[in-house]
Design brief:
Blueprint: H1 2-12, H2 18-31, H3 37-51, H4 55-83, H5 86-103, H6 109-124, H7 126-138, H8 143-172, H9 174-196, H10 219-224, H11 236-240, H12 243-272, H13 277-298, H14 307-326, H15 331-360, H16 365-394, H17 398-415
């Protein structure tokens, strides 16, 4: 019934139904940021003060949630290829928003781990596959643009969620803040995904990018259609045998610990440097806003310039941002480092999913991306733990920030080698 209604609607729309899908994906992207490490960073100071938990213990919840996501991602990928993103994203929104609401009730570390790890597992697995799987299935020529719009929505959520948490915390404490974040996830994310998402354009009688499926008996119409540029069509087994798969995976393993490690510890680091908590919260939102703007701009990366050069730039920016963060001792320096960090993260969020799709195509995108996500979420899990453990051991954030700088520059060197693979043998 729902699909019949959407089929009729899509036929009457003056534009491609894929843009409706993109809008629903953007709503889900915004809601994804409830359990983001930048959002959690707002809660570290009040929760560790009340309960006496260490930074390593808080970071461990992020890491464990990431490990659960790494286990789930390869299992979810083939389901995405067969059934589409609707079920995956609806499940992700529900099992993110509800546990975040329940965090407001915790009084012990194990309960915090249970609720946060469930939400974080969705952040790193189902959300990623559902969001980018929808884009890959509905867009080819405008895939970069659609991905950049999604990045803008994603980072808009990351701008808003810490501010929502901070405002609610000022009004009623950290428990009220978790209720506000969880409610926002549910309100924004669920209904559009449930009502509007469709697996692929072929299910509505059209081709990717909006062309109607040609009638094979209509020879004139078939001949009048321009020949589409062939898209890669790798299976998971074929992709894993290419050097490009492992180079992209290595770049992922080096870049994502910086994203997660700096994001989670940015606010407490700035507070330790003597800055006001409000400055710390707005610095987090500044890097998020910058990420959204820069991520959108990356969607217009020139086709003639290989994507690996964009990844090189991302690695250099992330390494430079970690060094800049290390030198922060004033409010202007805090915002400057946040902007530089946002430039790197915006590129990472936009370019890396595009690279996976452009290198290997949509035929088995879910299965391929599911394996790659194992590397990504494990790396994200490692980042906060590395930062928290080194900070607890040394008593400061200097060593973790220098470590992350080395990761970023090494990632730039790896990206320079990542070239699209040759088409698989038929």
């Amino acid at each position: 019934m729902r699909l019949c209604f959407i089929h009729a609607l899509a036929g009457r729309l003056p534009f491609y139904y894929g843009w409706i899908v993109l809008a629903a994906v953007c709503a889900a992207s915004f809601s994804r940021q409830g359990p983001a490490v930048a959002t959690l960073s707002i809660f570290i100071d009040p929760m560790t003060t009340e309960f006496g938990w260490s930074r390593t213990e808080i970071s461990g919840a992020v890491s464990l949630g990431g490990i659960l996501g790494a286990v789930a991602a390869p299992l979810i990928g083939p389901f995405l290829d067969k059934n589409g993103a609707r079920t995956i994203l609806c499940f992700a929104v529900l099992t993110t928003g509800v546990p975040l609401l329940f965090i407001s009730t915790v009084n012990a570390l194990p309960l915090f781990y249970v609720f946060y790890c469930i939400a974080r597992m969705n952040f790193t697995g189902p959300y990623d596959l559902g969001i980018y799987g929808s884009i890959v299935n509905w867009f080819y020529k405008k895939r970069s643009f659609a991905t950049s719009v999604t990045t803008l929505a994603l980072m808009s959520g990351l701008v808003a969620m810490p501010l929502i948490a901070h405002a609610a915390m000022q009004a009623g404490g950290w428990r009220t803040a978790w209720i506000a974040v969880g409610a926002t996830v549910l309100i924004v994310g669920f209904v559009p995904a449930w009502l509007l998402l469709v697996r692929r354009p072929e299910d509505l009688g059209m081709e990717i990018d909006g062309a109607p499926i040609a009638d094979p008996t209509d020879e004139a119409a078939t001949q009048s259609q321009p020949t589409a540029q062939p898209e890669p069509a790798f299976t998971r087994a074929e992709a894993i045998r290419t050097p490009a798969f492992w180079l992209l995976s290595l770049f992922t393993a080096l870049a994502w610990p910086i994203q997660a490690g700096v994001s989670l510890h940015q606010a407490p680091f700035l507070i330790e440097r003597g800055l006001d908590p409000t400055v710390a919260a707005t610095a987090v939102s500044t890097f998020s806003l910058t990420s959204g703007i820069v991520g959108f701009a990356y969607g217009f990366w020139p086709k003639r310039v290989p994507l690996r050069f964009a990844l090189v730039l991302v690695g250099l920016l992330l390494g430079a941002a970690a060094l800049a963060m290390h030198e922060v001792h004033s409010v202007p320096m805090a915002y400057g480092a946040a902007i530089l960090f946002g430039c790197g993260i915006g590129g990472l969020l936009t370019i890396l999913p595009i690279a996976w799709a452009e290198f290997f195509g949509r035929r088995s995108y879910g299965a391929i991306r599911g394996v790659a996500l194992t590397v990504q979420v494990a790396s994200q899990a490692a980042g906060p733990l590395i930062a928290g453990a080194l900070r607890d051991i040394t008593g400061a954030y200097d060593v973790p920030l220098l470590t992350f700088a080395c990761f970023g520059f090494a990632g730039a060197a790896v990206a320079l080698l990542a070239k699209p693979p040759n088409a698989p043998a038929s």
